[in-house]
Design goal:
The structure is a single chain. By secondary structure, the protein is an alpha/beta fold. The chain folds into 3 domains: 7-350, ANL, N-terminal domain (Rossmann fold); 371-468, Roll (Luciferase, domain 3); 472-602, ANL, C-terminal domain (GMP Synthetase, Chain A, domain 3, 2-Layer Sandwich), CATH 3.30.300.30. It is built from 17 helices and 29 strands. The strands form 6 sheets. The protein has an 8-stranded mixed β-sheet with strand order 2-1-11-10-12-13-14-15. A 7-stranded mixed β-sheet has the order 7-6-5-3-4-8-9. Strands 16, 19, 20, 21 and 22 form a 5-stranded antiparallel β-sheet that branches. Strand 25 and strand 26 form a beta hairpin. Helix 1 packs antiparallel against helix 8 and helix 8 crosses helix 9. The longest helix has 17 residues, at 69-85. The protein is globular. The termini are far apart.
Length: 608
């Protein structure tokens, strides 16, 4: 149950749900304009100012601990002094491996004010994958929670740098106690003599890509970017002192760890942190903590929509939810069932310079860039060559912009304009990874644009719609098949809870055959499903193979992990007990795939 708050902590009545898109854009511009004019003002400075103005106001809350603005600021001071005591400064990286909790932010926020860079490590990776994450940032110190020590031990033999390990929270014979060392530091504000010279141009964080199809990359995130994200979203969401945001997303991610929290703390509100998403407890938490906002990502909304009815699901004070990945097929149902006044969908990437906001709440759209901001955030869609998996070039060697409703890759112009942090591309720790994301000589000699790797289309009103991730779209029967389009169509069939679509290679056949891994209710209606496919998709987009799973593996940010199912393909011997079916168009039914039929596929004796 939530901790009891004092009478002064009780939130004000909810604000009216009316929302002006024009005012949202203007607020965001006004809040971000001063950032580059005050280069020494970091996000920790913002916390200090709120600690002076409203010291007893709640900042970060959870079932286990609560921090007021005063206590958060004091803890940041202690963490900064801990880093200084061990001579940490610019060029040094501290890796943080901890579950989501208020202390998590206090640690990294304090350490980065010394000029150190904190790497927010995914708490789900182990062994060589974890070692890879530590190696690519050249970790000097590692702070780990007691419950994650075994995961770290599995990685240490493969770590190439001599990093000092600290455990945070309980005794461990191998490692020193980080929390005890921090407790011994002074809570007073850093004086001018001990305060390092750190500006918004310095790096603050390394945030990892999700690594759904391979090893993750570590994106560089400057203090300027932290300030830009926090204040831009604060303007878009119109946060203030009376807001309380519910955050059940992992804090090692840019949305759950920076955007959701920063947007509210920037304006003096409070954030409720839950370590993991729970569909059964979601609305109980929202109501119990009297939240006015919540952050969503990926399939979280779909999980909630497929969950059993909760008596509290419409008794909340929510005025808005903000996030990305809410698909058209569930948008209206989600908004109606849970009585959400406003949905603020957006598109962005941790390392990217392309961002769009659907402030009008247009169902299915990921956002747009209004004409009056096009010069400040230049982004466009360019035609794409699916065979080469790169933008199409004309006879002069330049890229070609798409027409309305034509699919293309989204790109954003890279600028070195110091007054516009949102237009930068700060890259990754590895220069070769950085270079792979830059498209050069796009519309004129010498220009440079960031490749999002995402295919989109834009309608006549300028709204963008996500089509697919490059590499997910595949060719079959001479057509380009969008995994997102197929997945959305499949999820409309009753009883299907989750779906992941991908292409698999079949010997002797060009292209890749579509395959869908689905998690469904019992007594799946195969005949009805085939009819459903005919009603919603062209024939070439129907999945050739179907894998029935009890559940689908996802990352901490609800992205499906593709590597295992793609590698296993349609081989029933490697499916781990899952049933594989072949969509036999000659028989007009799904046929259970056994070893004999699989061997016939491998020898090219099955007509597709």
């Amino acid at each position: 149950m939530p901790l009891t708050l004092s009478e002064s902590d009780v939130l004000r009545p909810p604000r009216p749900s009316g929302f002006s898109s024009a005012k949202a854009w203007m607020r965001a511009l006004e809040l971000t304009a001063p950032i580059t004019r005050n280069p020494e003002r970091l996000f920790s400075s913002v916390i200090e100012q709120w600690a002076e103005a409203t010291p007893d106001a709640p900042a970060l809350l959870s079932d286990g601990e609560c921090m007021t603005y005063c206590s958060l600021s004091e803890r940041c001071n202690q963490c900064a002094r801990w880093a200084l005591q061990y001579r940490l400064g610019k060029g040094d990286t501290v890796c943080l491996i901890m579950p989501s909790r208020p202390e998590y932010m206090a640690i990294w926020l304090g350490i980065v004010r010394t000029g150190c860079v904190v790497a927010l490590v995914n708490t789900n990776v182990t062994g060589r994958s974890l070692a890879h994450s530590l190696n690519i940032v050249s970790a000097r110190h590692i702070i780990v929670a007691p419950e994650l020590v075994d995961q770290l031990r599995s990685a240490l033999p493969h770590v190439v740098h001599n990093a000092r390990v600290w455990v945070h929270g309980s005794s461990c014979s191998e490692f020193d106690r980080c929390d005890v060392a921090i407790d011994h530091q002074s809570t007073e504000s850093l004086g001018d003599v001990e305060r390092p010279n750190v500006t918004i141009e310095d790096l603050a964080l390394h945030i990892y890509t999700s690594g759904t199809t391979g090893l993750p990359k570590a994106a560089n995130v400057s203090h300027a970017r932290l300030m830009q994200w926090s204040h831009w979203f604060a303007g878009m969401m119109n946060t203030d002192l009376g807001d309380r945001l519910y955050n059940c997303l992992p804090m090692y991610h840019s949305v759950g760890g920076v955007v959701a929290i920063g947007a509210v703390l920037a304006r003096g509100g409070s954030v409720v942190i839950r370590d993991r998403f729970s569909a059964s407890q979601f609305w109980n938490d929202i109501v119990g903590w009297e939240c006015t906002l919540f952050q969503y990502i990926g399939e979280l909304c779909r999980y909630l929509l497929h969950s059993e009815e909760n008596p509290t699901e419409t008794k909340h004070r929510i005025r808005m939810c903000c996030g990305n990945g809410l698909r058209l097929d569930i948008w209206n149902s989600f908004k109606t069932r849970f009585r959400i006044p406003h949905i603020l969908e957006f598109y962005a990437a941790t390392e990217g310079n392309v961002s769009m906001f659907n402030v009008e709440g247009k169902p299915g759209a990921i956002g747009r860039i209004p004409p009056f901001l096009a010069h400040r955030f230049p982004a466009t869609l360019v035609r794409f060559n699916h065979e080469k998996e790169e933008p199409l070039r004309n006879k002069d060697g330049f890229c070609v912009r798409t027409a309305a409703n034509e699919t293309g890759e989204a790109i954003g112009r890279i600028s070195d304009d110091q007054s516009n942090p949102g237009s930068r591309f700060e890259g990754y720790t590895k220069s070769e990874e950085t270079e792979r994301k830059i498209l050069r000589n796009v519309f004129e000699p010498g220009d440079a644009w960031f490749r999002t790797g995402d295919l989109m289309r834009t309608d006549e009103q300028g709204y963008c719609y996500f089509v697919d991730r490059i590499g997910d779209t595949f060719r079959w029967k001479g057509e380009n098949v969008s995994t997102t389009e197929v997945s959305e169509a499949i999820c409309k069939f009753p009883g299907i809870r989750q779906c992941h679509v991908y292409g698999v290679q079949v010997p002797g056949v060009e292209g890749r055959a579509g395959m869908a891994a689905i998690a469904s209710d019992e007594n799946f209606d195969f005949a009805g499903f085939r009819t459903h496919l005919h009603n919603y998709l062209p024939g070439y987009a129907h999945p050739v193979f179907l894998r029935i799973c009890s559940d689908l593996e996802v990352t901490g940010t609800f992205k499906y992990t593709k590597s295992n199912v793609v590698r296993e393909g349609y081989n029933p011997a490697t499916a781990g007990g899952d049933a594989i079916y072949f969509n036999d168009r000659h028989v007009g039914a799904f046929v259970r795939l056994d070893t004999e039929l699989y061997d016939r596929f491998q020898s090219g004796r099955v007509r597709l």
